[in-house]
Amino acid sequence: MTSVPHGRLKLQRTSPGPPDERRARMPPTSQVSDSSASSRAGAGDAAPAGEAAISVHGLSKSFGAVRALDDVSFEAAPGTVLGLLGPNGAGKTTAVRVLATLLRPDAGTARVAGLDVVKDATKLRHRIGLAGQYAAIDENLTGLENLVMVGRLYGMPRAQARTRGRELLTSFDLLEAADRPAKTYSGGMRRRLDLADALVAKPPVLFLDEPTTGLDPRSRLTLWETIEALVDEGTTVLLTTQYLDEADRLADRIAVIDQGRVIADGTPDELKDRVGGERLEVHLTDASQAPAAARALATMSDEPPAADGDVVKLTVRRRSGAIVEAVRLLGEAGVGVDDLGLRRPTLDDVFLSLTGHVAESADDDEGMAA
Q: What percent of the chain has pLDDT over 90?
């Protein structure tokens, strides 16, 4: 076997970003041969037929006294998106790092693309892509050079790597900055380049840890569409995110993790159904009438209505006729109404109900301690 000639790649290691994330993205060059690399890169070596693309059973990991993962189990079918949701420090990033071969678990087993994450770690790195929470790019290389470098480390011929790099730069609206050093990029541009790095080899399994953090709304939407296109082509994606609307749109199944344990698992609709039925929200003209409104509407719900300022909320037993019934009851009680409506539970409701926490938008520091 021959290694990729580093001299021709003009590698510079002055500011490579987190080394563990680069190690998962770029397989050891000593393992890549010129004769087999091009077929390996982007070949779509998915899990064997009938086997889950990601399979985790009884996974545990501790950092000193902190139990980051505690008997965690979940699966993702090929060509689907699995969302990992949980408050900061829940263990999401730790799970991703174990699956990406960056951490060894203390107990349990995990298989990705048909390979064991511990026993087959080197081989597995050729079949996965990872975009972590922090951009892992070489700031002294241009945007195109970063992508070509990744492609060459995966064993692509130089021409193929450049073609793939330009495709990705176009997709992520970076083509005009292709020949600029990455250190001149804005934070959002660096994030997009990092995501493009993870997609160079068209891996059959892709790990995205908080992928849209720092992106503007337009870039978020572009990334969502890119992920959806990848899944349509058969890629399996494991996504951690702080944006519940993102999980609701992209995830086929969601595993909710809290304090290192999976406390719920299902499709977005299944999780919403577990929270309860339709929500009635009533906005009052006078906040002082909230107690009277709550008493008037109590017969419509199995739980006491909740009042917050001039808003009263309750879960109704049945949707049909609920608006008419609420208007009648409030009218009889002499309560003035500014607006009212029914809505389904959202993932925000699910998140709060299951974990007791609201979704947090701060950076997740769990990788070191949880």
A: 52
